[in-house]
Structures are given as C-alpha cells and as structure tokens.
C-alpha cells in the first residue's frame, strides 16, 4: 500500500548540544564581567563562535515524507514492513523514530538513521488498527538545531489468525447441492455405495464381475452421490471474557475463521451470523475463497461495511430470512455461553429442527476467584471466603445447567481453549454425521 | 561497543574537568558546594547517557510501585539539564580560586571537549561530523588563548614589550578570522 508523498512542516528548535554551548558561553561571559577576569570570556569564545557559525544557516521549512506499507491487510502475528523515505532535507542528517500504537509490536528496531528506513511491524491482535506515529528529526549539519515532525501511520486491517482445523463435521442428510461429501444415496460419485442388478442402459464398465458370477445374473456397482452442505457459523458477540488476545471473542473469531476456511475448502456453502447486543448481522451462505474474506470482515466490524452483508438493528435470531439461515443447514456456534438470552435463542433454533454444534470458547475461570489467606485471622474473613466459594460453585452449576440443557436437546457442546487444534474437540463428531432430530 | 566507548570518554573528560577546576582543593567561599554540584551534574549526566536506551512502556497503569518509581526516576534523569548544571558549577568552582588564566584556558578547552564527547555519545554520531567545525574550533582555541593572555595582563596590560605587541596583532588577526568564518553563514543562500 503506497501513501503518496506529503509535505510536512518542520518545527525547528535548538538541540541539547546547542543549549549546552549557550550555557557555557553565557556562564563564561557573566563570570568574566562579574569577576573582571577576561580569561572566562576566552572560555566563552569558542562556544559562541560555534553557535554563531552554526545557527545562522537557513533550514528547510518543509520536507516530503513517503511511506509504503507492504500490505494493507494482514493476519495476527504476520509481519508487515513499513518503508519510509524523506526528500527535501538536503545533506542534513535524518532520524526516524517509531512510536507504535497499542497491540503493535515493532520488533527490535524502533529508530533508524538516513533518508530511507524500513521497519517491521506485527499486529498482535485482530482489528482495524492504526500503526502508531512516526517521529522524524532532521539535524542540521552541526547538530545545533533539530527539525521535528510527526507523521500518523496508516491503518492496518488485521484479520484474526485462523485456528488449525482440517476435519469437517457433516450432516446426516445433505441438501440437494452437488458437492464433495459422499451422501447416503446412490448417485454419480466415486465412493462405492453398493451392488444392484444390471438394468438396460447401465454402463458395461460398472459391471461387478465377481458378484455377477456368484449370483448368476449381471450385477453393477453403484456409487454414492456427492453433495454439499450449507454451514452457518454463528458468532456470539454478546459477552466477552478472558484476557485480551485470548478472550472469548478472540477465540470465537479465530475458530469461526478456521471453520469457514475448512468448510469452504471442501466446497460447502458457508455463511455467518454475528449476534451482538445491537442486533444481528448476517452473510448468506456462498461458495468460494472470497467468501472467507467477506466472513472475516463481517465478523470483525460491528457494522458490516461490505455490501453483501446485511444488518438488522435490534433483529433477533428467530426472525432471520431463509437466505441467512437456510433450512437444513448445519449451524456451528462459537460462544462462551454466558448470555442466557443467547442460549434460549439457540434452544429455539434447535427446536425448529436445525442441526447444531456448539464450540464453547469460554477461556476464563469463574468471575469470583477464591481469595487467598492473606487476610486470614481477621474478623469476618472466613465468612467472606466461604461466600466467594459459594458464589463460585453457583456460577459453575449455572454453566453446567446451560450445557446440560443443550445436551438434552441433542446439541453437542465441545470445549476449545484456543491453543490446541480445533480438530481435537471436533474429532468425536467428524466420524459420525450429525442428525437433525425434532 | 562504540556507544559505550563514547559514554566512557564523556564521563572521563567530565570528571577530569571537575578535578582540574577543583585543584588545589580549597575550602574557601562556596567551593565545596560548587564541587558537589559539579560532581553531581557530571555523574547524573553519565547516568543519563547510560540509561538513554532504557525502554519506557507506553501503558504504565498495571505496573508495580517500584516500576513506577523507577520510570519516574528515568524520566527526571532524562529531562533535567545535568550537563548545563555541571558546566556552571565547574566555572563557578574555577572562579573560587585566585586568578590563574592559563589554567582556566585549559579548563575551557576541556569543557568544550566534554560537550563534544557528550554530544557524540548521546547522538551516536561518528567523530567525522565534527570535521567541518575544526576550523572554528581552531579559531576558538586561539580566542581561548588570547583570553588567557589578556587575563595574564599580556595584551591589555601596561607592558610595551615586543611580545605584547605581537599578542595584540595575533588578537586582531584571530578576531578578523573568526568574523570571516562566521559571516558567510549569515548570507542567505
């Protein structure tokens, strides 16, 4: 991404070196006058001479600064390089100083000398982030004056780094879309499905000769049909818990990005629904690699800017259009399951017959941490500790109740900590297809 | 390694300046206070140079009290003009002694060397950046010597010897050279 060169005004001021020379001059002259000792005027003379000779040079009022970012979009942890170049400063020395914004790692180099410099930056957390500011200092030839300017660095769109997921959870009954998953009906795929009697019109190369010999009649091989499924990723943005960088929303975004990539690679149609306090945004299921970008962008920003994403302020999940939540779709939910309203909405969707899998992304402990015995011995401390313990137990029981209510309706809940591969918690459901039970 | 060498050189020259201004040790007037202030200024300046590369975190809200204290200390160390204070204190210390013009002239040269060494240490620049200033430093050394000679009564004194006349000629020549060096920089490019 190239930012065209812009002229910036330099604010010139005396350098520390010049201020020291000035101090020596003034102190020497004052002592010479006060003490009537001309040798102190001699001490002041060299510093005055340097100041007079150096300060009188004309300095440029403006310089042109060009910046080039190697990419306008990146993923968490991926480095981008920032090339900076200045023009119009003549033979003066130039120093670049990088002041990175929050969640931007500048690496080892935060300062560089010369008219051109390169910095490597790493966005540590997803989001649309300003990289920070770049301070430029132009020194005059004798380093007696410094011209300062500050440039605001461009914005970098940082996508969440998708987690590792290779396997996909499949539906028991696929919709009638051509795809790559072997369905439980005979069709024109490549996976062996069974044997049946030869019918006129069958291809000769599909005759199963061993079976025909055994039964005495011509038998032909049949193959499983290949179908695709609709997958809707449901990201819960109502509540966030945990440390920044590994909070529930971070995990939900990374997990949803990984799931979107895995399903899109297996030619499924993938859409996304982001559920927050302000309303619901959705992206209808579609195919293709560009859909992955659209999904990530629509999840990252609270108000989707992409034209293909729809947004309904105050809308509820129960009233989404069929395009957003097609019948028979597999819904993969990424949620910390902290919001009761959201859980009730999940139960109502399940009762409408959708197949659902919940990935629990709560990566934080109970909000009430047990107090240590620092205050042990004081009056009332034991009762406070027991209250804390009770509150913690009640919270854990509530969480268990939420999960068991989902289990009772046939919604599997798997736990993911954001560190391990998503394949591990999903492995149990990858081998047997999920059935939609009413 | 170069930065450490520059810092070491600056500290050594600064300490030498203080020592040179302090000898012979006298306890008259405010010489003790001046010596203390000069030592403090040079020492704090050295510490500032040593801690110049210490990173300061942008977000200090969650830091411990000890870290807060340390960061405040580093901030004060970086902001205060220690070298300027040391210069004034060293000149004051020198002034406490009876007139000794050539001793003062050597101190002046050492102070200029201290400032240049400190500048090189804090900017990381190579000594080559001082090359254009060599003419001015040479003329400055001449002015320093003339100041010492004037202090010793060799220029403005009542002496009528040949040495005094020669010194006056040198003084005029040095002043003309200094003006000729400075004037071209005043003309607009």
Task: Based on the model shown, name its key terms.
heterodimer; A: 438 residues; alpha+beta; Immunoglobulin-like; Rossmann fold; 3 domains; seven-stranded mixed beta sheet; five-stranded antiparallel beta sheet; 34% strand; B: 189 residues; mainly alpha; 2 domains; 7 helices; 70% helix; 0% strand; flat; disordered C terminus
CATH topology of the largest domain in chain A: Rossmann fold
Radius of gyration of chain B: 21 Å
Query: pLDDT under 50 segments of chain B (min length 5)?
Result: 185-189
Q: Report, as a whole number of angstroms, the end-to-end distance of chain A.
A: 52 Å
**Total helical segments of chain B:** 7
The end-to-end distance of chain B, rounded to whole angstroms, is: 40 Å
Commentary on this structure:
The complex is a heterodimer of chains A (438) and B (189). Chain A is of the alpha+beta class. Chain A has three domains: 2-159, Immunoglobulin-like (Sandwich); 186-226, no CATH class; 230-430, Rossmann fold. Helices cover 28% and strands 34% of the residues of chain A. Chain A has helices at 16-35, 38-55, 209-215, 248-265, 289-300, 340-351, 381-408, 423-430, and strands at 2-9, 11-14, 62-69, 73-75, 79-87, 93-100, 104-105, 111-113, 116-123, 127-130, 132-139, 145-152, 155-159, 177-197, 219-228, 230-236, 269-275, 279-286, 310-313, 330-335, 355-360, 413-415. The longest helix of chain A has 28 residues, at 381-408. Chain B folds into two domains: 1-125, no CATH class; 129-189. Chain B is 70% helix and 0% strand. Chain B has seven helices and no strands. In chain B, helix 5 (101-123) packs antiparallel against helix 6. Mean pLDDT of chain B is 82; it is low at 185-189.
